[in-house]
Write a structure and sequence with these properties.
The structure holds two protein chains of two kinds. Chain A is α/β, with parallel strands linked by helices. Chain A is 40% helix and 14% strand. Chain A starts with 12 loop residues before the first helix and ends in a 14-residue tail after the last strand. Classes of the chains: A alpha/beta, B alpha+beta. The complex binds flavin-adenine dinucleotide, iron/sulfur cluster and FE2/S2 (inorganic) cluster.
Chain lengths: 665, 249
C-alpha cells in the first residue's frame, strides 16, 4: 500500500507551511477547555508540547517514567542547536539549512517537513532566550555561534557543553508554570504500557505507577508520544540507561507503522568499551575532530604491542602511523560526516590495527594541535625562539580553553591524561533517525495518535546532522504540533469527555496486567540484563555499522530464538504491586526484542547503502556507500501485523533539491 | 578487588530500613554504578531482590543518581556525581557504606531511592519566566553582558540532584533554590519577576519542610557542579529587597 504524507500541494515549498498554518482548522477557546490531551514523555519534545498546548487552553495530562521532567535524556545533549539566524553574516539562510539537512540525510527525508523545520528554527532561539536560556554570548552581548560537522556556516547556538540541559530546563520551566496553574496534570514516575484505541482513534493510555505498581487507565481526546529514540536496542549506546522503545512499540503492536527502523546513527567519537560489565558508552563531542587527528599504527605488529600495553602511542614514529581519514578523504580529512568516519574506524580495526585492549579503538591525537597552537601563541607573545616545553605548555593551555571539560571527563573515565597521550575512541550507537511514521501533521496512521521528537522519523532521513535533534524536538513541540493537532481535534469538539471504563480500556488494562504477571511467573534462571546484553551483541554484530544479507538473516533467526528463550527462562524478582525496577526493565527488553527484529528486517529489505545504513553488497570498489535512488527513494513504513511484518511505502519526491552523490574525497 | 558493601535496604516508604552486608568482586575500570550492577546481577542469580537505586545518564548531567557513599553525598571525589566515580579510587578489601539522601523533605521510596518532588514544587512556585510560546522578539534584541550571562550559566548548571540538602546539617534547600533564583534573576529577561519569584520559591521551600540555612557551606563542598554559595548571598539580598518593596511581604 502507498502511504500519503499529506503534504499540502500546489504552493512553492517556501510558502507551504505559512499558508497551511493560516488556513488550518481552529478549535475555539471555549471548546479547547473541554478537550483533554495526553502527552507521554517530557523531554524537549514533550515538555515544549505540553506547555504550549496548556497555554492554548487544552487540558493536558503529561506522563514521564522519570521522577521529574528535568531528567529526560535530552538533558545530556552537549554540543548545540542549529538555527538559520545568520547572525555571523556568513551567508546562512532558511534555504541553506533546509538544503544541508536534506543532503546530510542522504536524500531520504520529506522535503516539506525539513523546510518547515528550517523555517521555525529561528523562533526556537527567540523562545528559549526569552525563557532565560543562558546561551553563550560575544563580548558585545550578542549571541555566539559555532560550527558543526558537514556544513560550511556557523549556525550552532550553545550553552557551554550543556545545551540540552539548558534548553530542557527552559521547557521544564514553562511546563512547571502550567502545572502550577493546574492546566497540566503531571504524572511523574508513571510508565505508559499501552495505547487505547476506541473506534479507530487513539483515546488514551494504560500506565503503571512505578512507585505503587498500580495499573491505571487514562483517557483523552488525543495522545501525543514524545518518548525518545530506540538506540538502546543495541544495549550499549550513548543514550541514558532508561531510554526505551516501549511507548512507540506498544503503538506499533496496535497498528501504528514504524518508519525506516534501520536508520541508526553511529557516532565516531565515543570512549571504547572496556569490559563485559560495561553499562553504557560516553560520547566525546564531535567538536574534538576540529583539532584531533585520527590514526592507527601502520603495522599490525605495532598495534598488537599497543593493545598489550607493551608499546606507547608516542613511541610510534610518524612514518609508521596511518592517518587514514586524511589519506582516504583528503578534502574533508578528519571532518568527514559521522557515518563515513565511523565506518573508516571499523575498517581500520577489522584489519587488525585497532589500539584498545579489545582491538576496537583508534587514536584521536592532539599532539600536532598542541604544537601548532603553542608555536603561534609563543609568536603572538613575541617569543620567536620558544623552548619545547614552552610550546607544549602554551599549546595545552589553548586546548584546555577549547575542550577542557571534555578532557577532564575523558580522564575521569579512563584515568589517562589526553594532553599527554592520545585519546582512544571508537564509534557507538547514538541516535535513531527511524521512528513512528507520521504525516505532515505529525500524526501517525492511527488517527489521534501523534509523535514528536526523536520518537518520530520525520526530518533527518538516513543520517542526522549534529545539533539538529534539539532543533527538531523543540520545533515539533513549540511550533508545529500545537497547530497541526487542531486538524484532528477540530473534528472532535462535540465529543464529550472520553470514558475510561469502556470495554476497550478494560481490555487493554487486562492485557497489560496479564503480560506483567506472565513475566513474573516465568521464574527462570537468567536475568533481564543478560538477555538485553545478548540482544545487543546480535544487533551490533549483524545490524551495526556494516550489514549484509547473510548476517541480517542470521540476526532475525537469532533474535527470534532469543525472544523465545526470554519468555521461557527470564527471571524477574519481586512483585507487581510494588516498585520493581527489574520488572520495568523486563517489559522494555521484551519490546526491544521485537523492535530489533523489525530493524534487521528493514535493513535486509533496503538493498542500498545510504546514511547510517551501510550494506556491504552495495559499495564502490573503493569501499564507499552506493545509494540507489531509482529503487529506494522511499520511506519504508512497517506494520508489525502480529510478527508477519508488512511494508508500506511512501515515495519521496524531490522538487526543490537535485539528488546527488555525497562525496567527501 | 574484593569489597564489602553495607547497603541501606528498605522495602518501601512505610517500613523501617536496615543495613545489609554484601561481598562483591569488582575491578578498577568499573564505574561505581557498574559495581552496583555487579552486585545486583549477583543478587538476581541468588534469586534475591536487587538493590533499588536511581540512575539514568551515567555521565553526571541528569541528576538522578543520589548515593551517600561512606558518609559523603556522591562520594569522595569533589565536583563529581556518584555515576562518575570510578572504582580505581577504592582498593581491595575496602568496606563501603551506601545510603540514600537523608532529609525529611526527601522521603525514602525504596532502598536507595528517595522522592525529590519537593524540588519540582519549588520550581513550580516561581522558577520560570512568564512567557508563552508565541512570537517573542528577536533573540538579539536584548544584548546581555557576557560576564552576567556567564554568571547566570554558572548557577544554571545545577542538576537538581539534592546533594546540597543531603549534605546540610539542617537539610536546607537553599543552594538549589538560590541557584535557580540567580540563574533567572541575573538575566534581563528574568528581572521583572524577581520579587515574586524569590518570595514564592522561599515560601515553598519552607512549606516542603526543608530546614533553615545556617551558613555551614557543606552544600557547596558536596555539590557535584560546584555551585557557589555566593548564590545564597544573592538570594538573601533579593529576598530582603523583595520583602521591603512587595506589598505581599
Ligand atoms: C550524549 C548525547 C549528546 C547529544 N548531543 C546533541 C546535541 O548536541 N545536539 C542535538 O541536536 N542533539 C543531540 N543529541 C540528541 C538529542 O539529545 C535527542 O535526540 C533529543 O534530546 C531527544 O529528545 P526527545 O524529547 O525526543 O526525547 P527524550 O529527551 O529522550 O525524552 C523522552 C521522554 O519520554 C519519557 N518516556 C519514554 N517512554 C515512556 C513511557 N513508556 N512512559 C512514560 N514516559 C516515557 C521519558 O521519561 C522522557 O521524559 C545528543 C544525544 C546524546 C545521547
Ligand atoms: S546545587 Fe548542587 S548539590 Fe544542590 S541540587 Fe544543584 S547540583 Fe545538586
Ligand atoms: S546518573 Fe545522571 S547524574 Fe548520575
Amino acid at each position: 500500500m502507498k502511504l500519503d504524507g499529506k503534504v499540502p500541494k500546489g504552493l512553492p515549498l517556501a510558502d507551504t507551511w505559512t499558508n497551511y498554518r493560516s488556513k488550518m482548522n481552529l478549535v475555539a477557546p471555549n471548546n479547547k477547555r473541554k478537550i483533554d490531551i495526553i502527552v507521554v514523555g517530557t523531554g524537549l519534545a514533550g515538555s515544549s508540547a505540553a506547555a504550549s498546548l496548556a497555554e492554548m487552553g487544552y487540558n493536558v495530562k503529561a506522563f514521564t517514567f522519570h521522577d521529574s521532567p528535568r531528567r529526560a535524556h535530552s538533558i545530556a545533549a552537549q554540543g548545540g542547536i542549529n538555527a538559520a539566524k545568520n547572525y555571523p553574516n556568513d551567508g546562512d539562510s532558511i534555504y541553506r539549512l533546509f538544503y544541508d539537512t536534506v543532503k546530510g540525510g542522504d536524500y531520504r527525508s520529506r522535503e516539506a517537513n525539513v523546510h518547515r523545520l528550517a523555517e521555525v528554527s529561528n523562533s526556537i532561539i527567540d523562545q528559549a532566550t526569552a525563557q532565560g536560556v543562558p546561551f553563550a554570548r560575544e563580548y558585545g552581548g550578542l549571541l555566539a555561534n559555532r560550527s558543526f560537522g558537514g556544513v560550511q556556516v556557523s549556525r550552532t547556538f550553545y550553552a557551554r557543553g550543556q545545551t540540552g540541559q539548558q534548553l530542557l530546563l527552559g521547557a521544564y520551566s514553562a511546563l512547571s508554570k502550567q502545572i502550577s496553574t493546574g492546566q497540566v496534570t503531571m504524572y511523574n514516575r508513571h510508565e505508559m504500557l499501552d495505547v487505547v484505541i476506541v473506534d479507530g482513534k487513539a483515546r488514551g493510555i494504560i500506565a503503571r505507577d512505578l512507585v505503587s505498581g498500580e495499573i491505571q487507565r487514562h483517557s483523552a481526546h488525543a495522545v501525543v508520544l514524545a518518548t525518545g529514540g530506540y538506540g538502546n536496542v543495541f544495549y550499549l549506546s550513548t543514550n541514558a540507561m532508561n531510554c526505551n522503545v516501549t511507548a512507540a512499540w506498544k503503538s506499533v503492536r496496535k497498528g501504528a507503522y514504524m518508519a525506516n527502523p534501520c536508520y541508526v546513527q553511529i557516532h565516531p567519537t565515543c570512549i571504547p568499551v572496556s569490559g563485559d560489565y560495561q553499562s553504557k558508552l560516553t560520547l566525546m563531542s564531535e567538536s574534538l575532530r576540529n583539532d584531533g587527528r585520527i590514526w592507527v599504527p601502520k603495522n599490525a605488529d605495532d598495534a598488537k604491542l599497543v593493545r598489550e600495553g607493551k608499546k606507547a602511542a608516542n613511541d610510534i614514529p610518524e612514518d609508521d602511523r596511518d592517518y587514514y581519514l586524511e589519506r582516504r578523504y583528503p578534502a574533508f580529512g578528519n571532518l568527514v560526516p559521522r557515518d563515513v568516519a565511523s565506518r573508516a574506524a571499523k575498517v581500520a580495526c577489522d584489519g587488525g590495527n585497532g589500539v584498545a585492549p579489545t582491538g576496537l579503538g583508534v587514536f584521536l591525537d592532539f599532539a600536532a594541535a598542541i604544537q601548532r597552537y603553542g608555536k603561534s601563541e609563543a609568536y603572538a607573545k613575541g617569543n620567536h625562539n620558544p623552548s619545547k616545553d614552552e610550546i607544549i605548555s602554551l599549546g595545552e593551555a589553548v586546548i584546555e580553553k577549547k575542550y577542557g571539560n571534555l578532557f577532564e571527563m575523558y580522564e575521569k573515565i579512563t584515568g589517562d591524561n589526553p594532553y599527554k597521550v592520545p585519546m582512544k575512541i571508537y564509534p557507538a550507537i547514538h541516535y535513531t533517525m527511524g521512528g513512528l511514521w507520521v504525516d505532515y501533521n505529525l500524526e501517525t496512521n492511527i488517527p489521534g495518535l501523534f509523535a514528536t521528537g526523536e520518537c518520530n522519523f520525520s526530518d533527518h532521513g538516513a543520517n542526522r546532522l549534529g545539533a539538529s535533534a534539539l532543533m527538531q524536538g523543540l520545533a515539533d513541540g513549540y511550533f508545529v504540533l500545537p497547530y497541526t493537532i487542531g486538524q484532528f481535534l477540530s473534528g472532535d469538539i462535540r465529543t464529550p469527555h472520553i470514558a475510561n471504563d469502556s470495554p476497550e480500556f478494560m481490555q487493554a488494562e487486562q492485557e497489560v496486567k496479564n503480560r506483567l504477571e506472565k513475566l513474573i511467573s516465568i521464574q527462570g534462571t537468567e536475568s533481564v540484563e543478560n538477555f538485553h546484553r545478548r540482544l545487543g551483541k546480535i544487533m551490533w554484530g549483524y545490524a551495526g555499522m556494516s550489514r549484509n544479507a547473510e548476517g541480517l538473516n542470521a540476526a532475525i533467526k537469532e533474535i527470534q530464538a532469543l525472544r523465545k528463550e526470554f519468555w521461557e527462562n527470564v527471571y524477574v524478582p519481586g512483585e507487581l504491586n510494588e516498585m520493581n525496577q527489574e520488572l520495568e526493565k523486563a517489559m522494555r527488553v521484551a519490546d526491544f526484542m521485537e523492535m530489533g527484529e523489525m530493524l534487521a528486517k528493514d535493513a535486509l529489505e533496503r538493498n542500498e547503502s545510504c546514511g547510517g545504513h551501510f550494506r556491504e553488497e552495495y559499495r564502490s570498489p573503493e569501499g564507499e556507500a552506493m545509494r540507489n535512488d531509482a529503487d529506494f527513494a522511499y520511506v519504508a513504513a512497517w506494520e508489525w501485523n502480529g510478527g508477519d511484518m508488512k511494508m508500506h511505502r511512501e515515495d519521496l519526491e524531490f522538487n526543490e533539491i537535485e539528488l546527488k552523490t555525497r562525496s567527501y574525497k | 578487588m574484593r569489597l564489602t558493601l553495607k547497603v541501606w535496604r528498605q522495602k518501601n516508604g512505610s517500613t523501617k530500613g536496615q543495613f545489609e552486608t554484601y561481598q562483591v568482586d569488582a575491578n578498577e575500570h568499573m564505574s561505581f554504578l557498574e559495581m552496583l550492577d555487579v552486585l545486583n546481577q549477583q543478587l538476581v542469580e541468588e534469586k534475591k531482590v536487587p538493590v533499588t537505586f536511581e540512575h539514568d545518564c551515567r555521565e553526571g548531567i541528569c541528576g538522578a543518581c543520589s548515593l551517600v557513599i561512606n558518609g559523603q553525598p556522591h562520594g569522595l571525589s569533589s565536583g563529581t556525581t556518584a555515576c562518575q566515580l570510578h572504582m580505581r579510587f577504592f582498593k581491595d578489601g575496602d568496606t563501603i557504606t551506601i545510603e540514600p539522601w537523608r532529609a525529611a523533605a526527601f522521603p525514602v521510596l525504596k532502598d536507595l531511592m528517595v522522592d525529590r518532588s519537593a524540588f519540582d514544587r519549588i520550581i513550580q512556585a516561581g522558577g520560570y519566566i512568564t512567557i508563552n510560546t508565541g512570537a517573542p522578539q528577536d533573540a538579539n534584541a536584548v544584548p546581555v553582558n557576557e560576564e552576567i550571562s556567564s554568571l547566570s550559566m554558572d548557577a544554571a548548571a545545577c542538576i537538581g540532584c539534592g546533594a546540597c540538602v543531603a549534605a546540610c546539617p539542617n537539610s536546607s534547600a537553599m543552594l538549589f533554590t538560590a541557584a535557580k533564583v540567580s540563574h533567572l534573576g541575573l538575566l534581563p529577561q528574568g528581572k521583572l519577576e524577581v520579587d515574586t519569584r524569590v518570595i514564592n520559591m522561599v515560601n515553598q521551600m519552607d512549606k516542603e519542610g526543608f530546614g533553615q540555612c545556617s551558613n555551614t557551606y557543606a552544600c557547596e563542598a558536596e555539590c557535584p557542579k560546584e555551585i557557589s554559595v555566593t548564590n545564597i548571598a544573592r538570594l538573601n539580598r533579593m529576598y530582603m529587597k523583595a520583602m521591603v518593596t512587595s506589598s505581599k511581604g
